Amino acid sequence: MKIGLQRSRGILLLVFAIILFSCHSRRAAMKGEPGEIVKPQTSVADKYSELMAVNKSDIKNGRLYEFIDQWMGVPYKFGGLDKDGVDCSGLTYLLEQQVYGINLPRMTSQQVTVIKRKYEEELKEGDLVFFDFDGKQFSHVGVYLQNGYIVHASSTKGVMIVKLRSPSMYKYFSRCGSVMSDFSAQQNFQ
Questions:
Q1: Rounded CA gap, 73 and 190, in Å?
Q2: Which of 4, 14, 112, 134 has the most other CB atoms within 10 Å of its CB?
Q3: What is the domain count for the chain?
Q4: Which tens digit of pLDDT belongs to each residue from 147-184?
């Protein structure tokens, strides 16, 4: 009886330590404050430099790529805002808030109203990219990364990174731009 109790306590302690360690490592992944550029973890820089065919040294915004890494593969859920499911505007809303400290409107149709339009060639990391799916203007949004790649919440495959110019995306591409610099200071859509 005493050995069984000690073993149960030992297992309980082990489980607690694993949970504590995994929570700590998750918090460590999002170092710094929103808007702050922090060095990415080596494994994350390796992963995304390979995925987007860029030099490892081009992966500079650790908060951005750690955020993406945490959300990659989360399924699509209309109106969703958590790891059980997220929609395209929800992902953009959370990413801009947690990575850049920008409070966007929640809906795609409102997000498009707070950007300063750019040409595709002018896109920078963190800019918003809009699409007209199903004949509906500005019905989908993603966030530009680099080297022609975007992150978005696909309705069929969940959160993923794709080439903007992939045939399945580019034919629906409609507008892009950066969030207006004075927008976040003037508005609070939380």
A1: 25
A2: 112
A3: 1
A4: 999 999 999 999 999 999 999 999 999 999 999 987 65
CA geometry: angle 143, 145, 150, nearest 5 deg: 55
- 119 is a domain residue: yes
Give the residue numbers marked as catalytic: 88, 140, 152
- The pLDDT, as a whole number, for residue 2 is 55
Q: Would you say the pTM of this structure is higher than 0.70?
A: yes
Q: Would you say residue 14 lies in a domain?
A: no
Tens of pLDDT, residue by residue over 21-63, are 433 334 345 788 998 889 999 999 999 999 999 999 999 999 9
Q: How confident is the model at residue 127 (pLDDT cuts 50, 70, 90)?
A: very high
Tokens in use for 141? 């949004």
Picking from 150, 157, 174, 164, the residue whose alpha carbon sits closest to that of residue 95 is 150
Structure-block tokens of residue 120: 């595709």
Q: What number of H helices and E strands is found in the chain?
A: 7, 8
Would you say residue 151 lies in a domain? yes
Tokens 């696909």 found at: 154
According to DSSP, residue 157 is labeled T
Query: What residue numbers bound the domain in which 178 lies?
Result: 34-186
CATH of the domain at 68: 3.90.1720.10
Residue 21 lies in a domain: no
Q: What are residue 36's phi and psi, to 5 degrees?
A: -90, 135
Contacts of 30 (CB under 8 A, 6+ apart): 63, 66, 67, 70, 98
